[in-house]
Amino acid sequence: MKKTVVLMIMLFVLSFVLQAGGDNLNCKNLKNPLLKPFKTPFGVPPFDKIKDEHYLPAIKCAIKEHKEEIKKIINNPAEPTFKNTIEALDRSGRKLRLITNIFFNQLSADTNDNLQKIAKEVSPLLSKHNDEILMNPELFKRVEAVYEMRNKLKLNPEQKMVLTLYYKDFVRGGAKLCEAKKKRLAEINSRLSLLTLQFGENVLKDTKAFELVIDNKDDLSGLPEGVIKAAEEAAKAKGYKGKWLFTLDKPSLIPFLQFSDKRELRKKMLLAYIMKGDNANKNDNKKIIKEIVNLRIEKAHLLGYRTHANFILEENMAKNPQNVYELLWKIWMPALRKAKEERKALQEMIYKNGKNFKLEPWDWWYYAEKLKKQKYNLDTSELTPYFKLENVLKNGVFKVANKLYGLKFEERHDLPKYNKDVKTFIVRDADGSLIGVLYLDYYPRPGKRGGAWMSPYRKEAKIGGKRIAPVIVNVANFTKPTSDKPSLLSLEEVLTMFHEFGHALHGLLSQCTYYRVSGTDVARDFVELPSQIMENWALEPEVLKMYARHYKTGKLIPMDLVKKIKDSAKFNQGFATTEYLAASFLDMDWHTLEMSSDWDVTAFETNSLARIGLIPEIYVRYRSTYFQHIFAGGYSAGYYSYIWAEVLDSDAFQAFKEKGNLFDKETATKFRKYILEKGGSEDPMELYIKFRGRKPDINALLEKRGLKEE
Known about the structure:
Elements: H1 11-16, H2 52-75, H3 82-91, H4 94-109, H5 113-134, H6 137-148, H7 157-172, H8 179-209, E1 212-214, H9 225-237, E2 244-246, H10 250-259, H11 263-274, H12 286-302, H13 308-313, H14 321-352, H15 361-376, H16 389-405, E3 408-412, E4 423-428, E5 434-441, E6 453-458, E7 461-463, E8 466-468, E9 471-475, H17 491-508, H18 529-538, H19 541-547, H20 559-567, H21 573-591, H22 601-612, H23 628-631, H24 641-658, H25 665-676, H26 684-692, H27 699-704
């Protein structure tokens, strides 16, 4: 139940960023820190000086500046060339890109009522500005002129890709539509920008509204000491003296489902989680979903596509919905078979424990934990003392990156940050040259949305031959320290840290010239490869020996415990795979609809899950009403990309295994050169083949998840 990736209210805004209007603006206001050059170490955002009220005028001024830059491109009397049109377009809007990157990450990581109000004003402005650019006939005429003579130009591969992508951006943005259709498309885009924003806001409110307050110590039965202590401190912080507080934040929810002996309380927690956005209150998302889906259908038709999925997938490796469904079904059948076997084993355990009830979703985590202990003598609570956050970070992910790519990480305490919990690091290459700046924000708080993600504050590019060093942030919701213990991570949280750090490496190691293709600006079903491959190192015995030490004694994790982790790696994979795939099917079903309708969201979801045969003991990972990836992020018709990327990462990791060395320099150098540095500058499959020497093989994934038939 992880890998929400990265903050993406308007993904296109982060790569091309766009804007509108601003009357009576004082854009030379030197008191607004966002409008001045950042006189900070490495040019990082001056968080210590930025206030909420600075964002709106700064964004409006940046929009105004971007408009002037666009006007210069259009009014250039010279014939259109790659440099004076495409490159100029790519270089335009730098200030806006920077300010909106800062604002939208703040909105997700540390929001408040003021920021949410600003976002509702800003999002339509950005949408309008985007449309004004992409639908501008004079600008498109210049872009099209360069595109039509592309075969005569002496462009390198990156320039060819950038030219093609910008041309497609305009066509897919409505440049070829008649004026009436352009107007309607702009209305749709503006409305969608607000709806997706409201969707995420509603999920956050429902998440934070739920509290399970326990005042009877007997109701804590089964919970590990660390979980109880964290709940006690959470209650104390809320003024609930002598009580224990549990919330829907993952560090609170998951251990409760795994260990609580109180079945009715497990049910209460899980139902609260799966009913987010579906409580018939002011945060209910069902009407918003209907409108989003119908507007996306209308938009697809305006642009000449059969469905929203066809529109989205054209730019992905999958290319069309049929290919996605074929992939999902290929994995679904063995995964469902495995899940049914797991269900039978859990039900038998219930009966053997003297209970006579039928297994329900709120029992699965609990009895799976017991079965794991029985089969492998592994209690996951045994692991957390060995996963101190600082050790996992510095001796785990940082050392893996050092051994693979020679990177060095220097913690800095002089860089401004937006919250006291944030840590900052300078990243250098093996030769000491600057790679970039990394912000890490790991603990939950009231103003942070759930999940984990990576975002750029400043993207990498090369201007005048000089590399612009990226500034990247990783955000997560990991277990917080308590008064007597440091942050001790669960196994899932360890994997999440490695995962998001892989995204950070993709942004940091980028070596592209143009913003349009740098860093994580790649096909949606390719972007998860750099993140997911990092997870493969996390639990390798050789790597565990580097970072897994007891937080009190400093003793290395016992090798018998490492063996248990390895032996149990394929345990419960039927559950994990089917709950994920069910959400992928649900996403595709919503976005392959061809005609608008007054959808009954609950009925649609029920029918979607019944069609694939999801067993009732397993809930879909994301129900529609809190499926932020597809209704408030950049993964619509793209949630499948995690499993597609796992096909890639499983196969790619085999390249290291085949060499007999997890840190084989030749393989690591190729992965860095062809995957991490290239961004979206070349076709992703061609890049993968350059790294691997062939196309990926699905068998590595089936083997890894234990889904191959014996």
